[in-house]
Amino acid sequence: MKAYVKTTRGPGGEIRNVPEPEPGDEEVKVAVRASSVCGTDLHIWVWNEWAQTHVKRIPLILGHELSGEVVKVGHGVKFLKVGDHVSAETHIADGTCYACRRGKMHICENVEVLGVHHDGVFAEFAVLPEINAWRNDPALDPALASIQEPLGNAVHSLLPEDNVEDLAGKDLLVTGCGPIGLLAIAVGRQIGARKIFATEVNKVRFDLAKQMGADRVYNPIEEGDGLAKKILAETDGNGVDVAVEMSGHPSSLKLVFDALTPGGRVSLLGLYDHDVTLNMNDSVVLRAARVHGIYGRRMFETWYQVKNLVANPSLREKMNRIITHRVPLAELPRAMELIESTQAAKVSLEAKW
User: Fold this and answer.
1) Which of 127, 129, 136, 333 is the 20 to 30 Å CA partner of 165?
2) For 2-146+312-350, CATH number?
């Protein structure tokens, strides 16, 4: 089969003819109908410091966000059947570690990720553990089905635990409007947030944040140190109830706490290039701030939440807007260039070779 493969420990990748994979006993083989490019894929493509540290296996088939159709099942597969339409939960848990046995598979101590530790999905076919294949409504657009995984990141950031407070009537701040930040705005609006504030420096994503439902979108470079005061003024001096930090920029880390109401909640999903500093006394301890680190999606509570949210036509319409470009998979370098040059928000890859 054809696949986009990372062949050397350096920038880029290439189309290769590789052996078609066959499913093991508890695995399914999926014909890829659509996939999409994640920031992680870009890191590996350009071969930055993160990729050099985390990618151990070369050659490696790239990609992890997909939708497709089951074409073969292993002997031990119990629930899925040939013809099912599926997306992938991309974190493969071992099922036996301390975290997994406490029902926290999303933070498995030995987690492995498609397209990072295992061959990925930028290919004609991919193999998934049955437990990682999420059955979709066959009527769902494959491009939208493939971005349910990052949508799950957004939902997990807004609703990190079962007992988290309802967002309805609360004020929300989203810093960094990449695809996950944009989806967080759309979901926050759908589940009833009162006011939604967002920050973004890129013009394309700045405009999309407004379309997703943000009440105020700020360019943090232009606003400077006075931005937290502006947000406080917009919330009657109280601050936002929930803030989700998606940018991975140190100034945004400070902003989410400066703009937070005492006792408010912060979710941190953005990854920082280097160690960061924060006045923990004033930002966290004396404000009684609740801080959640976000990694992946809760397996599989978040997927059920996503399924119910995607049933809403309004959210599907916004997901479509976030997909600013649809590119044949054979033109993956162009997709990477669109993202790296900040011309795109989310790029969908059509299964065309």
Assistant:
1) 136
2) 3.90.180.10
